[in-house]
């Protein structure tokens, strides 16, 4: 009996079953690929903070790099009541052109607007990109290639000419490992087509996906060695943050010094104007006494000469005020306070003339814990120590283990070729060891010696800086106490000079002294007042220098900066 062909309805279940098998095989392939990819990525990034603290790096606390502590003199001293301040005559000004600023306001304006500081704060952001650049060495790299080759051979006595066409495609993923090795997934595929070739299968598809694992066992082994590039960039970044913090402290100190320099110039100008008024009053007395016949006419000329001398002193003092105000405006860089503008800065903060007995040992300990120069050196020592360890590893021979697992497929169709692969009919296993031993190893020895010498140099630099910090603190403390003694001495000098002037003036009115004697007494009083102003100003600046020597600032509130700008955090009155 003849067999009846299957109807379309009878063949439909078999078609659906075939499609279901193909769909299940596709899902299996996809699941295996995702599993291999996830395992690879996990191996590549299993260490947290790789090179930035997770592999033995020294991490400086965020607060230490960004927060600038306020220097409270009373914490390190014993206060003494202040002396009476010398008074000067008020100066004339136009209220419409005045800007009243306290010392704290000047500090905040300098932090927000100072151009030198803005330039310096770009450095940490730039240095941070070095970390990203170093971390990019551990990013997976996907690549692929396509190629076509046509080969024509001429006919021979043994047979006709042959033409073959080969199309090659390859896709791979290479993942660097934090252990120093790498994992590579490769999937090559070739299509071969040949004519006039006896027994040739046309076309022929050849595929050979494989996974290669390579790991150094001596030189270059381990996360510590692999993270060296990131580690060095991380230390450089922390150093740049410390340098930026030092720049912030320096700008605060410059603003304080400029503030008190302007105060000194203004007070000195007031003294010169007061001296001019006294000289003019002496000229009036000389004319009155000359008309009464008490003194000679020559005393009028002497008094006029004294007035002329004071005019010159006023001009010099006014120029000093303009220069000091211009310097403060440059530091503040505030809109409306341009250095060529007419705005006049009024100083709202009075001098702090409280005496203190310094605890120098506590100040030195504070400086050694806060000075950013020392922190920068410590970070460099940590980087050099890591370089020594990596250089010691570089002395070892290169011994690398490599394993490759591959599957092969060869068929007339792509599906048939990959069916052979997924059924694992043809497997490849390759194990290998690679050994390299430099004869003499001179390069590695030189690199290790260089790393050791660099570390020794930084250790010597740290000792040098510690000694310098101690000297800075002691010098600042000496200046601080000396300037206080100058305030006391100059105050006494002002009192005596004022009494001498009163006596000389009274003697002149009796005809017992000349105008020259009175003018000398007036000049001595002016010099004493100028000296008192200088002592008061230097005492304020000495406080700034003392805070700077300890790595802090006289700000009433702590300052915290970030790469994107500056922010203030209240830390007390």
Q: Key terms for this structure?
A:
single chain, 573 residues, alpha+beta, Outer membrane efflux proteins (OEP), 2 domains, 8-stranded antiparallel sheet, 3-stranded antiparallel sheet, 12 helices, 56% helix, elongated, disordered N terminus, disordered C terminus
> So what's the CATH class of the largest domain?
Mainly Alpha
Please count the beta strands (DSSP E, at least 2 residues each).
15
Low-confidence stretches: 1-20, 83-92, 567-573
Shape-level CATH architecture of the largest domain: Up-down Bundle
CATH topology descriptor of the largest domain: Outer membrane efflux proteins (OEP)
CA radius of gyration is 43 Å
* Distinct helical segment count: 12
Approximate shape: elongated
What is the element string, with H for helices and E for strands? Answer: HHEEEHHEEEEEHHHEEHHEEHEHHEE
Biggest sheet statistics: 8 strands, antiparallel
The proportion of strand residues reads: 15-25%
Total domain modules: 2
Helical proportion?
A: 55-70%
